[in-house]
Amino acid sequence: METLDYLRHGGRIGRVTNLLGSALSIKPLLRVAGGEIGVLEKVRTASHALARLEGLAVGVAGDRPVDVTVQHLMAAERAEDLTKALTARLPGLARMWVAEIGPVLGAHVGPGMLGVTVAPALD
């Protein structure tokens, strides 16, 4: 995410957390599991967050056949860059998609968001 403001406005974080996180350039890596959104890690700077997101996706995929979707919100160019990087690093990649997320999630994360979904490949 480019900014923490949307998480604050959505009630996911408080004003002080937003101020401190913004001052320190903290970029949270969120995880959706079991219908719940939670913080997986907190990383400083957007470039570190992007590298960590790529590394996490590669680690989850391993060598097995996988389908991958790179999601974004108004960040098509960055999503394409991530797609190219993942394509080069995933030996078992079966299919790759790029998709813009919808308004429900987008209202909480704001423009600039990137996400990755890794799933076992469908035959």
Query: What strand order characterises the main sheet?
Result: 4-3-5
Question: What characteristic shape results from the CA principal axes?
Answer: globular
Overall strand count: 5
Pairing-aware structural class of the strands and helices? alpha+beta
Give the fraction of residues assigned to helices.
Answer: 40-55%
* Computed CA radius of gyration, to the nearest angstrom: 15 Å
Our estimate of the beta-strand percent is: 25-35%
CATH architecture tag: 2-Layer Sandwich
> Ends: how far apart?
33 Å
Given the structure, what is the number of helices?
5
Series of secondary-structure elements, N-terminal to C-terminal: HHEEHEHEHE
Instruction: Give the tally of structural domains.
Output: 1
The CATH topology label is Hypothetical Protein Tm841, Chain: A,domain 3
Poorly predicted sequence stretches spanning 5 or more consecutive residues: none
What can you see in these coordinates?
- The termini are far apart.
- The strands form two sheets. Strands 4-3-5 form a three-stranded mixed beta sheet, covered by helices on one side. A two-stranded antiparallel ribbon has the order 1-2.
- It has helices at 5-9, 15-23, 46-61, 76-89, 103-109; strands at 26-33, 36-44, 66-72, 93-100, 114-120.
- Strand 1 (26-33) and strand 2 (36-44) form a beta hairpin.
- Helix content is 41%, strand content 32%.
- The model has no long low-confidence stretch (mean pLDDT 80).
- It has five helices and five strands, in the order H-H-E-E-H-E-H-E-H-E.
- The chain has 123 residues and is α+β, with helices and mostly antiparallel strands.
- The chain has a single domain (5-120), classed as 2-Layer Sandwich (Hypothetical Protein Tm841, Chain: A,domain 3).
